[in-house]
Fold this protein.
Amino acid sequence: MKQIEIDSGSGFCFGVTTAIKKAEEELEKGTPLYCLGDIVHNGRECERLKQLGLITINHDEFQQLHDVKVLLRAHGEPPETYEIARQNNIEIIDATCPVVLQLQKRIKREYDLTDEHGKQIVIYGKNGHAEVLGLVGQTEGKAIVIESLEEAKRLDFTKDIRLYSQTTKSLEEFCQITDYIQQHIEPGATFKSFDTICRQVANRMPNIRDFAKRHDLIFFVSGKKSSNGKILFGECLKVNPNSYLVDDPSEIDFSLLKHADTIGICGATSTPKWLMEACRQALLSHTD
Ligand code: SF4
């Protein structure tokens, strides 16, 4: 008899849980509700909410809307979005995660303190990611986004640097970047780094590694667009090469079960519990 375990530490973080709860509450009222961008980087959960009436729109479509309700997801938005909403009489249901909101405020405060010496506000994050766009928006587009240690090497070390991080980036690389800048900043310039990585993701890394080690075979359930999904799946792979990323039960290769006695199912902060359970049911129906 094969043993199948779902990781109790996997699944929605509180930011995503709150955003989805807000959407469901609004949808229950029966008035149309729009969401700016996918509410969560998980196609199956987006589909479930679509069935309940949630209409996902992009920024171009948002600009054309008037007199409606629009939900802002946990990633947050730049100030222009709130300005457009004000002009178009759009009611905002703000589900920006409190952790992201705090980070936006910190970056804005830093930017407002910026003097004429050309202080560089640097964000370690993914270019074009919604959260990063929201953060850069706090600086009128002036913040510099770096995606890696390699890119950090191109900063101007003769000028002050203030380093922040997108909430879901790797703590390890953030520390490497901090060390590198510390060692290369020129005399006369100052450097401060602020570890703004959300522990909802960082704290899951050791746990998910332990979980992945305990099983012969791992199915990591996550949308391919989820950045924390990529990071957490990478942690599984490091300790268990027999780890596979699947979007949903239809992507499970059941022939892999032949050589496994214990199977682990885990996922990202954007993976709903019901989807991990659906994978477990699919696996159960293929085991004796
Ligand atoms: S990962 Fe952290 S910052 Fe991002 S939505 Fe979840 S709780 Fe908020």
